[in-house]
Design a protein that fits this description.
444 residues, globular, 8-stranded mixed beta sheet, two-stranded antiparallel sheet, alpha+beta, 12 strands
Amino acid sequence: MAPNPELPTSIDNTCAQIPYAPALFERSEGGKRTTDQDAADMYSWLSFIALNWPVNPLTCAPDTTQSILTNPNSPTWMSYISPGDVFKMVGKPDPWCGGQVTLTGGQAGAPLRGLSAMQQREIAHLPLAVRQIAQAHPEVKLYLAHDSKSEELLESSPTLLTSGPDRLKSILQSTDLPIVDQNGRFARFSIAMNKDEYELINNNTLYTKAGQAKYGPVTFPESDEAKQIMGAMEVKAAWKVLGKGDNPAHFFTQKALVYNGRSGKPSPDGLVTVGLIGLHILHKSEGQNFWAWSTFEQVDNNTTSFFNSNCPVPTPNPHNHCLVNKPTADANAMELDPDGKPLQFPTQIQLNSYIVPTNPGYDTAFQHLLANTPWAYYKLISTQWNSGATGLVPQFMASSVQETFVAQYTKTGRVLDGCVACHQGAEDSAGETTEFSFLLHAKY
């Protein structure tokens, strides 16, 4: 039997289009159309390529005159808007793709649009000390504050840890802990939403508590190929500061300004080069009432970046040093001393044995197609999706660098190691259901 479905033999500008749904890759068997895990994983890999396709800096849409093979440094998903630029302390969300910004004073000139306008708006939202550094370094376009996956959510809704449902509190407690690489540096995290999700929030005033209360339960737009609707998407990224033992050619890299979101203070060595270590893609895709979930990781995560096979376990061991998938620092731990010296033990991370990558053969094939780019050093962990007759598959799925400490079971025995299981029951600030998105927490 031929590969199911057949793999592409090359990458061209048709790959800039995000697939609408896993069902696009169904096959015929016994006279019936069937969508299986191969189809779902093909959908994930092509989504990964499309999201990382070079962006048009003026429109924030994929630039089909460019190629991911020759310009791997400006992926489209990085033009998506962050929750912090939507859910503000006061006021409306920033315009999509930055709108227009007119600089004054010594920076006066032609109005800025697109990514340049987005950058200026993001700089304006930064804490004062961080903003001053960003203004002095316009070549830096990535600002990373969060050292845990759930930190941004807890900043906007701190009471969730005390008054939220037990199941949600368990998840938030385990994802509000830093992971520490072998050089002693904390991983950093960012989140962004696509235009369809942004427009639902913006057009219905869902960025305010009053707007959420008036709207009621939130149903996000679903992809529809016939109507050319992409549907809501969220992209969650994990990054590491590159240092000793890291090969920058094996990472998608960015110059970044690292600061501490809880204090608003710059890191002692705030201007760094970071590499992408994880990309988690959520998509309200056609026919997927549980959404479709794609998880990618950088190939060195569990061999060198976050693992030392010769790590000696000390006695006593109050900080879980050398223990696999155990936190070595708490949520309030300091990463560096004033001189930039790391203060915390590295986290030993391995993908849990019950989370099995579903299609290593596809990884090999797509890595070959992406040869000589940093994207060749990423792999798909799996795609969690609703297969129809057999329901949600696979049962277990997680990113080793984004859900490192999530417990396998709750006290009642409910399985948590799966995207849908963790996100089920998400609510907004008004207590209304938001399908599977934790982002709708208004600040006013």
